[in-house]
Amino acid sequence: MSIIKTTAGLVIIGALAACGHPGNVPGDKSIDYGINNHHLSTMKAGIWVDPNGCDHWIIDDGLEGYLSARLDPYGKPVCSGTAGAPNTANGPFKKGTFIPDPTRNAKGQPIGNVSGSST
């Protein structure tokens, strides 16, 4: 009985492995294929400063987010020290999409205690 179960299990695993991904997964990572699909260069990027003081490009598309390290022409991280304090995000990185931010009201004001500090 265990040989039959093992063989059936291997057949099922093999069949599933041959199926591939169920959806269309394009190779171009510069295009957002979500709800409002468009090229990422049309969105507004901000800068997030990591705990080490290095800069990262950040884009918030409402449902999705994009992050990549800021690199110099030689591929080394940019740690400018002028983009803001560590663990902060600066710039219009939440602009360029019609999807609202669930932590802000229609006027762009925070809803509730978003920052974690008591007011």
Q: Can you walk through the features of this model?
A:
The protein is elongated. A hairpin with a 5-residue loop joins β1 (31-32) and β2 (38-39). 8% of the residues are buried. By secondary structure, the chain is an alpha+beta fold. The longest helix is centred in the N-terminal third of the chain and has 18 residues, at 2-19. It has a domain at 29-110. Strands 5-4-3-6 form a four-stranded antiparallel β-sheet, with no helix packed on it. It contains one helix and six strands, in the order αββββββ. 15% of the residues lie in helices and 18% in strands.
Instruction: List how many beta strands DSSP finds.
Output: 6
The secondary structure category is: alpha+beta
Helix content: 10-25%
Record the strand order, biggest sheet: 5-4-3-6
Distance between the termini: 66 Å
Cα radius of gyration in angstroms = 22 Å
The H-and-E topology, N to C, reads as: HEEEEEE
Regions with little confidence, pLDDT below 50 for 5+ residues? 114-119
The fraction of residues assigned to DSSP E strands is 15-25%
**Count of runs of 4 or more consecutive helical residues:** 1
The major beta sheet can be summarized as: 4 strands, antiparallel
Q: Any idea what the shape is?
A: elongated
- Average the pLDDT over all residues and give the rounded result: 74
Task: Spell out the key features of this protein.
two-stranded antiparallel sheet, 6 strands, 1 helix, alpha+beta, 119 residues
